[in-house]
Amino acid sequence: MYFFNRFIVLFAALFISVVVTAQSGSLVTNQEYEREIRESQQFVIEKTWTNKSLMDDLFKPIDEQLAKFQETQQRAADLQNAEYVMIVLLLFFLFTLIYVFTENFRHIKKGKALENQKSKQGAILAKMLPPESIQEYIETGEIAPVIWGDSLIVIVELLLPNPLPPGIDRRQIKEAISKENRALLAANGLVRIRVSGDRMLSGCKSHKLIPVQQFERAMSYVSSLEMVSNKLVLGASIRSGISFGDVVFGALGTSSIRVDALGLAIDEAAKCSSQGAPGEVWITDKVRSFLGQSENYKIQELLSVPELECSMTKITVV
Q1: Which among 248, 244, 243, 267 is positioned nearest to 147, based on CA atoms?
Q2: Is the distance from CB of 155 to CB of 204 less than 8 angstroms?
Q3: Mean of the pLDDT values across residues 139-148?
């Protein structure tokens, strides 16, 4: 029991001495640490105060990094601004391209519409004007009157059966014959002057042909048109009048487009065509005078026309 009590007393004394020693050591250590910190701070303060270059050396890497960072930021800002400018330019280019394509498409569409309109106008003018007068009217807006000297004049009157066969439209038949008439005129070197109702007036003004050659072409045209008319409508026919002389060709009136040929030869050809029966061809004295004796034609009748102071002759192809 005694030993146990002494052991407890020794353990308590040892514990107290350790605690006291630890506390005293800890106090000393903290005080020394605080003193070293104060000395270090004072050293830094004294060095900084007495030597400014030391601080510059300390902060120089940081300044360089900061400068580089600012430079990088500035470069990034410049690149971003450049991107904005490029985007604006790209948008402007796209809008310009769209505008150009739109205008180009509009002009192409307008050009096609003008071409269609021109074709329609050409088709309308072709029904009213001779081919050589169409371009003159388009370019100048007028047709200057000219004198056709020593020209062969042909008037053809279309005679359709009345009534027409069932299922045949008069307007369509006249349009078809008019189309064939233009083709035959061109094939025989004749110029279409005008169409009035069932009458079609044309002439041959080529001075490269002698009068007999002009007459040959006129008769070829008349006989071909006779066959075409009868082929399109059974029972259709024509009657013709042919004269020769000087005529004045030009535009008449100011409010509408109309061309015509004026002269005694026109009146004589009109009288000849109205005199004939279906299929007949009547010619004036002047035409008969340069025909002479021909094996190709036969003179059948002679008719005097007092109001025109001339005579007409019915002629047939042998």
Answers
A1: 248
A2: no
A3: 73
The per-residue DSSP string of 220-249 comes to HHHHHHHHHHHHHSTT-EEEEEEEEEEEEE
Report the distance separating Cα 248 and Cα 302, nearest Å. Answer: 28
Higher-scoring residue by pLDDT: 249, 216:
216
Confidence (pTM): 0.57
In one-letter notation, the amino acid at residue 318 is V
**Residue 160, pLDDT above cutoff 70:** yes
pLDDT digit string, tens, across residues 259-283? 677 888 888 888 888 878 888 888 8
Three-class HEC string of 128-186 = HCCHHHHHHHHHHCCCCCEEEEEEEEEEEEEECCCCCCCCCCHHHHHHHHHHHHHHHHH
Q: Which of 182, 210, 270 is nearest to 262 (CA)?
A: 270
Q: Which of 132, 122, 123 is nearest to 259 (CA)?
A: 132
